[in-house]
């Protein structure tokens, strides 16, 4: 961002990659959106509530009260008659926007100081019997909560170290969180997206790691 805060992170592991959009705040690990190359993506409101959720089957859009206002299925990927997608555009903040036109046309745009970067995080994913549940999705609710609290505790320890090293607060307030904390927060959100848990629990875990 023009402020110097980290805006977008792209991570890769083997043949999978993810794009993470962070909020424009000092000392934050607050995630505004997570896009994965396997077809799963989630966008969040500023307060951490889920805004848009997409999977290899389709997606849904929620209002800030948690009510579903739009739902769609990707064509040719479901045995059910699919609900076509009307183009969606949202602004995560004044610099980052998301356009959803089709399963293979999901664009994340970053605009600042007259320059633009655009990423296409859309993909064509074929649904197979083996893709419905991955080993990561076997984690239960208690395990996911414990992982989320562990990440939160590590975040607090990191802030405490910053306070001790820079008591005045002028320096540590400008320091970005270490990459391993950002990565662990993203992993927790990925596990929540894969797991069969309630929307309420998913929102609670998101609020914990984004606090």
From TrEMBL:
InterPro entries: FAM194_C. Residues 1-174 form the FAM194 C-terminal domain. It holds the Pfam family FAM194. This is ERIP6 protein. It comes from Sinosuthora webbiana.
